[in-house]
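BUG: 3D viewer hangs when loading the predicted structure for this chain

Environment: internal workstation, default settings.
Expected: structure renders.
Actual: progress bar stalls at 90%.

Input used:
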Amino acid sequence: MGAHRLWAHRSFKATFPLRAVLVLFQTISLQQHIHEWTQNHRIHHKYSETDADPHNAKRGLFFSHIGWMMYEKHPEFTSKIQRMDMKDIENDCLVMWQKKHYLSLALLVSFIIPTLVPWLCWGEHLLNAVMVPAFLRCLVLYHITWSVNSLAHWTGGKPYEKNIYPSQNAVVAFLAMGEGWHNYHHVFPWDYKTSEFGGFTNINFTTLIIKLCSKVGLAYDLKTVTPEMIEKRARRTGDGTYKGPSK
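Structure tokens produced before the viewer hung:
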């Protein structure tokens, strides 16, 4: 929700308190600081499935899932990322503060606190306190996130654009709280819902959270796409599985 829909795509705006909470959550996830995550994601969208894409799905399922972090970066990626405009991110004081203190913050909120709380508060065995809320939590979260880069680029329908790898994957959407409707997302990346139908209709819990934040004034300027634009694009470039807007 934070690094992806707010900072990477600017699909909505958030007040300072909400941004602070999202910075905390991103740090807990232990998936790079927001500046680096956003930079990688923007280049992924701009050069999707090319050598400049950090997790290019054309290089195979393993590479797009985890292999991209094991291999030396392709020269095209290295060249393009140096020219990626990140001024909007660099003007965000919270994001840059997180970047400056990322290692110490990540160690504290991802390992030290999750280990100490169960160990000291209810007498959990220290090994369990280390392995489950710290290491196992990170492992599960990593593979769910990586599945968006791999499985959601390999299997599923393509109702909006048939000539790209990103697909509609309900399993990934369920696990990643709405991030698996990837064919839609790559066609309309600025839509805060990342799917045609938000909420429970398309298994999109993150959209429900953003809507709730909007209701209480924490999120605003939510960007979306008109049903007419969606249908026009689907009829023109989709794979024929588009069923039209919900009634």
